[in-house]
Design a protein that fits this description.
Order of helices and strands: HHHEEEEEEEEEEHEHHEEHH
Helix content: 25-40%
CATH architecture of the largest domain: Sandwich
Shape: elongated
Number of strands: 13
Structural class: alpha+beta
Number of helices: 8
CATH class of the largest domain: Mainly Beta
Radius of gyration: 31 Å
Number of domains: 3
Length: 375
């Protein structure tokens, strides 16, 4: 009797926990509602089967408990019971598998208008590649991987020169645009997973796997590895930012191409890139150039740390104090040859610091030119 009561409490507690559990699905952020439906069907069928079998066990333990003088009855065959169990089990399995097969067929049937994103996995980080203006990936293979060429891009392939390389652990995707994800592994088996997107696929050494999705929710989502890939597996994390098309194009324009990376282009730090975005959104580049050309205001190229002449005949060094004052009170100190055209910008201390970081990044060596990108 005690065992039957314990089994009943296990069944009852499991059902209660299912409906009161703090762990639920994250908000769906893609077109894959069918995957959620498939999981729900599996939960319901398995849950109902668990409850029925659990209650049967309670009944059997109670009914056939030991009673002095009662003898066990041997019944090796029960064709009617076996037939019922076979039919019920078959129906349950078919109902569980059918939505999954439909979902899988759609999962790997990529729409022709999908853009491509290559995801490279290695212990224990992600990196990304996007096709350039030609829309075609250059050929890549693990046999070409070197320290200078971590993605294994074939040298001399003309299609590879404009490929966009993203070594940051953050990648941005425009909302509502279909994306085909191509997966490559540099070392062992990994699994690319974004829970809100409901998308995951093994990244297998020696082959290219793929799936597609269409993001429908703006936000910043975790990229996780869903395959045990070594001791640092738990640290293999990144972020996927689903953003507006305008923000995506601004971000994309600040990335390195493979040709620029080979030429030694220096990527910006995340804070400097944020400063570039702040400057752009506040209209700074309408008056200040980044290529040394003269505009309404002085160029930002090589401005930081330089000595400049002021309208009153004095000179000063462009440092943090001067930049902060020029942003908050642009009419206090006017550069020689320029008028008081600038309007004060209302920026926080953190935003000003980011702009200063970007300004510092525009100091170029005579032998090379810096190209903006995300680190």
């Amino acid at each position: 009797m005690l065992i039957a009561a314990i089994l009943f409490m296990v069944v009852l507690g499991t059902v209660i926990f299912n409906f009161m559990s703090p762990w639920t699905f994250l908000e769906l952020g893609s077109n894959w509602a069918l995957i959620d439906f498939t999981v729900l069907v599996t939960f319901v069928i398995c849950g109902v089967a668990f409850v029925i079998l659990g209650l049967y066990m309670v009944w059997w333990v109670y009914k056939y408990r030991y009673v002095p003088g009662r003898l066990a009855e041997y019944e090796p065959e029960n064709p009617k019971l076996e037939a019922r169990l076979t039919i019920i089990t078959t129906i349950g399995v078919v109902v569980m598998l059918a939505p999954g097969l439909v979902a899988w067929d759609q999962y790997v049937r990529v729409p022709p208008d999908a853009t491509e994103l290559e995801v490279n996995s290695e212990q224990w980080k992600w990196s990304y590649r996007l096709p350039g203006e030609d829309g075609i990936f250059g050929f890549a293979h693990n046999k070409y991987i070197t320290f200078e060429n971590p993605m294994g891009i074939k040298d001399g392939d003309p299609y590879a020169e404009d490929d966009i390389i993203i070594t940051s652990q953050t990648v941005k995707i425009p909302i509502d645009r279909k994306v085909k994800v191509l997966l490559r592994s540099k070392d062992v088996l990994h699994d690319f997973w974004v829970p809100e997107i409901r998308a995951k696929m093994d990244s297998v050494p020696g082959m290219v796997t793929y799936f597609w999705f269409q993001p429908t929710l703006l936000g910043e989502f975790d990229v996780l590895c869903a395959e045990l890939c070594g001791r640092g597996h738990h640290t293999m994390r990144g972020e996927m930012h689903v953003v507006s098309l305008d923000e995506y194009e601004t971000w994309l324009g600040a990335q390195l191409t493979w040709a620029e990376m080979k030429a030694g282009a220096v990527p910006l730090s995340p804070q400097a890139l944020q400063g570039r975005s702040i400057a752009e959104s506040n209209g700074c580049f309408a008056c200040h150039s980044l290529d040394g050309s003269r505009m309404v205001g002085p160029t930002w190229t090589n401005l930081w740390g330089s000595t400049v002449q002021m309208e009153d005949g004095t000179s000063l060094v462009v440092d943090e104090e001067y930049v902060r004052e020029s942003i908050a009170e642009p009419d206090v100190k006017i550069r020689e040859g320029y008028g008081p055209e600038m309007v004060a910008a209302e920026l926080t201390d953190e935003e000003v610091a980011a702009v200063i970081d970007f300004l510092k990044s525009q100091v170029q060596e005579e032998s090379s030119e810096q190209v903006e990108s995300v680190e």
